[in-house]
């Protein structure tokens, strides 16, 4: 990860902080607050087809490049009903990102509540929002002689803070296994769960085929095909028999346009042993849908979010019981190394030793018959995409 002098970033933009309070329709730096609110209300109306929501400007969002962004809260009567991040450019306003739903609070209120959960309160301090990464916000709290910064979970951040860059990641990993926490290590004294979602299709009886099984029975292994085999078994599209799984594996290998890796070609040319393959997300998704339709699920389709989807996006699909396929890349040995997994659930938990809250994904890693966990908040991905499948007859 690239380092950023966080204090310097904050001070450069101090002059544009605290430009509104909730309920105001005009703000002090020349942007018309009513236009911001109307943009948020029109956006909300286009999604839920209702004119009953009211928008209010919370604050300007401090960004590294000085882009005009504002945090807007949405209310249905007196109850919170979501938020929007509105961007202003060339006298034009549009919603860059947002969330709508009963009980969903604004960025500002969410961070403040998480701070209060940790036993802290700053009722008279000056507060503002800073964007520390795409769709990742923190709160600056200024008192006469003190300035503190808290992340979206209410954890206090150091003044010199690592700034996450979703693209061009620089952190180097030894191998992919470094990213995963085994079920044996996911124990209460180490991780304290705060909330969770588990895919309804998944339970303790769900088949998680091992890499060893595929190597022995099929003579092949590719992490993308392996993850799709698991999803097919979970969706009950593939029968849990050796013949059915071998047949499905070979078809998925073909339909997803999986190719043998260079290293595998060198080894198998001499030994004639196991073939190892690789492929991309688009071919994997299209190939799986082709297989689904061949099996009689004619109305099946998929949709991909290719720019490190947010936890809200992932949780929405988990709540809708959609099977999720993820591909990501990390820096190993100075080069991108990719891996496919499937997402089975979400866990927000406190890492007890650090007293920090993170978002974890419960996943099938493609190797073992037990679930694993990965800290989605901290991994320095070079790239990350997730596809969800609608499996329909």
Brief account:
The chain has helices at residues 6-12, 33-48, 107-117, 211-217, 223-234, 242-255, 262-271, 281-294, 311-319, and strands spanning 2-4, 53-62, 68-76, 79-89, 92-100, 126-133, 136-143, 146-151, 156-157, 161-163, 172-173, 180-182, 191-198, 220-221, 259-260, 275-278, 301-305, 323-332, 335-351, 356-364, 372-375, 383-390. With 393 residues, the protein is of the alpha+beta class.
Structure explained in plain terms:
It is a single chain. This protein is of the alpha+beta class. It contains nine helices and 22 strands. Helix 6 crosses helix 8. The protein is globular and about 70 Å long. The two termini are 45 Å apart.
Rough outline: globular
Q: Count helical runs.
A: 9
Instruction: Give the total of beta strands.
Output: 22
Low-confidence segments, given as residue ranges, are 1-31, 160-168
Integer-rounded radius of gyration: 23 Å
How far apart are the first and last residues' alpha carbons, in Å? 45 Å
What fraction, in percent, of the residue positions are helical?
Answer: 25-40%
Biggest pleated sheet: 9 strands, mixed
Q: Structural class given helices, strands, pairing?
A: alpha+beta
Percentage beta strand: 35-45%
Mean pLDDT: 84
């Amino acid at each position: 990860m690239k380092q950023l002098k966080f204090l310097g970033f904050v001070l450069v933009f101090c002059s544009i902080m605290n430009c509104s309070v909730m309920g105001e329709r005009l703000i002090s730096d020349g942007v018309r607050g009513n236009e911001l609110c109307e943009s948020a209300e029109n956006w909300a109306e286009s999604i839920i087809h209702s004119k009953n929501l009211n928008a209010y400007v919370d604050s300007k969002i401090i960004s590294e490049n000085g882009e005009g962004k504002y945090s807007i809260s949405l209310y249905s009567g007196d109850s919170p009903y979501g938020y929007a991040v509105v961007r202003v450019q060339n006298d034009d306003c549009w919603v860059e990102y947002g969330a709508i739903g009963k009980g969903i609070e604004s960025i500002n209120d969410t961070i403040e509540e998480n701070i209060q959960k940790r036993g802290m309160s700053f009722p008279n301090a000056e507060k503002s929002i800073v964007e520390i990464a795409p769709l990742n916000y923190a709160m600056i709290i200024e008192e006469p002689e003190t300035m503190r910064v808290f992340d979206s979970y209410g954890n206090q951040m150091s003044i010199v803070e690592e700034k996450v860059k979703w693209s061009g990641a620089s952190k180097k990993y030894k191998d992919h296994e470094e990213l995963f926490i085994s079920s044996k290590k996911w124990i209460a004294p180490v991780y304290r769960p705060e909330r969770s979602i588990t895919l309804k299709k998944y339970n303790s009886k769900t088949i998680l085929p091992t890499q060893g099984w595929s190597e022995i029975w099929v003579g092949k292994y590719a992490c993308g095909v392996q993850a799709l085999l698991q999803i097919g078994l979970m969706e009950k599209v593939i029968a849990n028999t050796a013949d059915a799984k071998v047949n499905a594996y070979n078809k998925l290998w073909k339909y997803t346009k999986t190719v043998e890796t260079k290293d595998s070609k060198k080894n198998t040319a001499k030994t004639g042993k196991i073939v190892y393959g690789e492929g991309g997300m688009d071919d994997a998704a299209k190939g799986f849908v082709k297989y689904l339709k061949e099996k009689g699920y004619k109305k099946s389709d998929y949709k991909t979010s290719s720019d490190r989807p947010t936890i809200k996006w992932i949780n929405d699909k988990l709540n809708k019981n959609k099977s999720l396929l993820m591909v990501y890349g990390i820096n190993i040995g100075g080069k991108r190394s990719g891996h496919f997994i499937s997402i089975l659930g979400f866990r927000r938990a406190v890492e007890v030793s650090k007293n920090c809250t993170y978002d974890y994904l419960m996943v099938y890693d493609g190797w073992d018959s037990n679930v694993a966990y990965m800290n989605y908040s901290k991994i320095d991905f070079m790239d990350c995409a997730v596809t969800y499948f609608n499996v329909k007859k």
